[in-house]
Amino acid sequence: MYNLVPLTRDEIAAFVRDGFGDVLVPRMWEATPDADAAVEIDGVEVAAIGGKPAFFVGLRKPPKPVTPFGTEQTWLHACVFLDPETLQCRIHGDEMYPSECRDYPGHNLALGTESECERVEEEFGDDRLLDGDAPDVSGLLLGPHAVGSKVFAYPDPEALAGTVEQMRRGDLTDADRAAFVGVAVGSRPGSTDVDTARVEAVKTTVLEAESWAGTAAEAWTELSGVVGDDAADAPDGASVEVGRGAPETAGWDDAEYSGWDDAEYSG
């Protein structure tokens, strides 16, 4: 979960509607040996709900040249909306900004799990978790009511043959991603049923998407070196992202950057 922002059905639908279907990516899970429900795909036992593979939909993380915490510029997987120079989110405060991004630190606190802020504190020092009290967690979907709203069930396991290894490598095709996104948007909250007509309509819309973020993700993937390698000679984010239409971020010296200076959680 540390490297995926799970989106709700309504958020996924909004990304698709706004032309950003090409930034979405699914995630399935390998079932634990004692799992009550699993289905085999490509020889792997995958977590399932009622015999249907379970999955999240989140945001793509192409390799970008980033410089976290004073280290050298390095090729690292980063959110499709992250400005690799300021390390700020290009849609922070926008209507598309995912609820999980806003609430994630608080969710960790509510679940008694080490937060990202605390992990950074351990590695680099300084106080980054500004408030250790868990906030309201009304957006934390867990249990049966998450089905069809945040956790989705793929209706045809046999159609996923060949996708497990592709997903592990990060090599899903546009058609693969569109199929999962279609199922997510076509899902019925509280159920594993899907609206087939809506699934097909969404798949078509996703395959037609050519957003600045999606095309920039493809460009970064083509330009990148090996993840973890030095990226000193990489092009800057402005040429790859802003040049394709990305909104610029304010930078850390701008007090007008709403939400960062006043945030309860800095991690």
UniProtKB/TrEMBL annotation:
Composition-biased stretches (Acidic residues): 251-267
Pfam families to which the protein is assigned, alphabetical: DUF7531
Region Disordered, residue ranges: 228-267
Superkingdom of the source species: Archaea
InterPro entries linked: DUF7531
Listed Low complexity bias regions: 228-240
Protein known as: YkgJ family cysteine cluster protein
